[in-house]
Amino acid sequence: MADFLDAPKVSAAFIEIIKSAEEQIFIVSPYISLTPHNKKYLQSIDDKKVPIDIVYRSDTNPKPEDLTFFKQLQSAQLYKCNDLHAKCYINELFGIITSMNLYEHSQSNNWEMGVRFSRETDPDLYTQTLEEVERILQASSPENSDRTATASQRAYEPRKPTRTISPKLKAPPKKGFLEKALDSVLGEEAHCIRCGEMIDYNPEKPYCPKCFASWARFNNPDYKEKVCHKCGTKHTTTKTRPVCNDCYKTYYR
Questions:
Q1: What is the DSSP string of 94-131?
Q2: 8 A C-beta contact, residue 201 and residue 229
Q3: Is the pTM of the predicted complex or chain greater than 0.70?
Q4: Mean pLDDT of 83-101
Q5: Which of 23, 79, 177, 249 could join 92 in a cystine, given CB atoms 3.0 to 4.6 angstroms apart?
């Protein structure tokens, strides 16, 4: 369920969005003026190579030192959008729609409010918000390009990681005669690495349809999941390594 936030909670939630991000951060704010704490947290997430897309209003002028800071971040990209008025901050887990600009004065002095929502508990709100943020970015132009760029020029393209599954996991798992016999009768069952639901065994597609649709929105093969695809036990897994260490040693070494 979405939560109401007053001004201090909006600022705290923005920091939490930065700290908890592992796949992507979107910052949509017409006006930008960073606090020292904003810079420290953004630098810390950039050190982890988490992509940061920032869009601000094209007729505003961020402080030169803030523009310099953003351009020094290895994983950040700046965009300008005509007539931008929306303020939204979102990562792969949750987001905020708020009246507050990412502006030092707003965070310290203005009477602001916002709503915090989660991908898990508010999936429709999360999806609709993310889609609108992507539309805003597609209608924007990169900071170092001509202001007349339009959506048809596709200035913004979602970033897609290139890592793939280990070659060892593509090979059939090593099984004994009894296990092979049971598989031939019952089918080779496995588990979705996000929700644990029973699915067919396929280490290249270790998600149920619902969880795959959620994962595909960010398409990060290294995002940490919760379940082993092979045995179904709770274990940190990823799309590139969907099985726990015990199953890997048993069936793939």
A1: EEEEES--EEHHHHHHS--EEEEEETTT-HHHHHHHHH
A2: yes
A3: no
A4: 94
A5: 23
